[in-house]
Design goal:
single chain, 326 residues, alpha/beta, Rossmann fold, 2 domains, 4-stranded parallel beta sheet, 12 helices, 13% strand, disordered N terminus
Length: 326
Amino acid sequence: MAKIEISGKKSKAAELKGWAKFRFLWRVSREERKADQILKETLKRKECWFGPFKGEFGNFLGHVLPVLSWLHQQGVKIHYCGLGLHEPLMVDEQGKLIVHEFFKLRDFFAEVSPATNKTVPPADVQAEIDTWMAKAEASGMPVWNIGYHFYYWFVFRHLPERHGCRHAYDLSKVYKTRDEFSAVVFPRSKGITNRNQGEAWDYVEVADALSPYFDKVYLVGHPSQSLGQESRGNIEVSLSADNQVMLERVANASLLVTQHSGAVYLGEYLHAQPLVIFKGQGPIGSFYNTSHWVKNVGEKYKLEVAESLDEVKEFCEKLKAKYAKT
């Protein structure tokens, strides 16, 4: 795969010329200096306000949670504003919450589709964010305002590379409940036909293709972001807005199947091999980016790709043979 510039300041700067490019890079440099000072103050005072996060699940897993976990490791008291549905992920390896104070935003994804962290939430949620932000600014403590999109996209996401501030707790220690040879499938409904995710898949066919190779096949994910179907045989539909249900299924699984999305990061947190299914004309959009950012949460697994049901079955055969030897 040809190297593609990671989405961020370098790729954006390459699109600009002359004065526009100079202004952009000057703005990034200014925000980086501010971010460095906020990081320094946070570590000195051992307390900060961090948020708001109102965006995509993959952005939370790949960019936000690794920094929160690292700050927790440093003994920082974090006043966090974000989606309440992410709470089951925000724990250490003893299952204890990693933030000191959690200002929870309600689940609004049935009303508004998320986009990175620039989602425009419903009015009542925005009012809660505004209230939290006023408290943060009045606190006198460092404020990590990841709701400011320029800072979030061009500066905050690159902090782990610049300063090493990333950590991933082994969440399988919290959510693994039994040993079983199972697979989980995310039957994605959001953005299923684009250059990043490829063409739509028939998830009934995908589940049926996996079924002979595993003791159980679970369909998991948020109901508002997933395609529904019925349980049958060893295929169980476990769609739920309660992320703890999904986390237990993934932690117990040997294989995680999804179209290209941030869900692949769960394999690193919960010890399941990710398999990206892609249908259509390649290359897979932003796949190089995902392969790059996965280092924020670990590099235990190579991101494997299957471009047909036959390739899915071939991969399952190899995986089953591997586990039969252990």
